[in-house]
Amino acid sequence: MLAELQDAIPSLERTVVLPYLDPDPDIGAPLRDAIRWDELAASGANGELAFERVPFDHPLWVLYSSGTTGLPKAIVQGQGGILLEHLKKLNLHVDAHPGERLFWFTTTGWMMWNFLVSGLLTRAAIVLYDGSPGHPDMGVLWDLAERAGVTTFGTSASYIAACMKDGVEPGRGRDLSRLTAVGSTGSPLAPEGFDWVHEQLGEDTWLFSTSGGTDLCTAFVGGVVLLPVYRGELQGRALGAAVEAWDEDGRAVVGEVGELVVTEPMPSMPVCFWGDEDGSRYRASYFEHYPGVWRHGDWIEITERGTAIIYGRSDSTINRSGVRMGTSEIYRAVLSVEEILDALVVDVPRAGTEGWMPLFVVLREGVSLDDELRAEIARRVRSQCSPRHVPDEVFQIEEVPRTLSGKVLEVPVKRILTGTPVEKAASRDSLANPAALDYFTAMARSLEAAPG
Fold this sequence. Notes:
By secondary structure, this protein is an alpha/beta fold.
């Protein structure tokens, strides 16, 4: 693998091998100009740091979108924009200070890894973790928080939900006295998640839910340390983020659900997409729906008091008889059923009819999907959402396909079930569990073969 990387980077001059997994790695042939880290350190080699001045929009890195809406986009972000954005976000919104220890559970394939590393722009220390968040059990990250003296514990809404389902009690048997803040992102955090954090870690724990995107490597709305926290709501819009909720006619609405738009430029908006020479894909991705205005693809409500509520992706909204509902609300109802560990719902269009709304569920071990459980699911959705959003059919699956950052692949699954080849609907390399798509590929074939 290292040799392949060397071949792919013609400008590479030297390779330093860090013996992370193998204490004595073999860096001989076919590697060129390679040296082990301990040999480099022992050589006494030193040199004066040299810095090259580059333009504000000089490319910094290429980040790939999560793939929740299709094939990932190769997003190029600039040096100056990311620097300004992360200085603002980490110092003012995350409120990182000297002596604090900032942690966010993330993989290197998620923008939150880049964001966490930017924590070095503050005087706080950062805590990295390499491993599964569920091995040997769901308490492993809370063990880390105690061991490392974490003060800000960042994670995903899906991880908090998993801890709730698994009966994890972070404060029991652990000294988390240094932990003062919990951050959540990746998907909307249900009101019950707010309750759980405060019940487990104390009412004075600052819980800030945030929402943004890989596109800007930051959040549009999220934590504001000076403002109160309301159950199920994000505290406010980020500084310098002109975020509004727009209706279908492009009018800003308050107290109503609308499309999340950004009406003024933000520092870390992408420089370009890699390989998008004329910028056409970039413009189509964000500025086509409302000409000249960034449409992010999320449903958002800006409340009268200036807080925000995220309802999920607008392109995966369930529309039943003209009543639209975000998938996060349906998941909240479905996952309140004790036997259900995970779920995915899509609205599949069908010619001449309203559409087909299947629900796919992952059940606890030993539980079977019988008529009684189906009836309970229908009852929860009917009472907590609406009678119109009761699923047409419920199917049991082994696992829900998710990206490396834990996001559910609603739009790709919908496309697969409507006949799009799987290789055009999603990138398996961007998934945490690519084999999970096989179930839906097989279902698509059976739907195509079905009479009528």
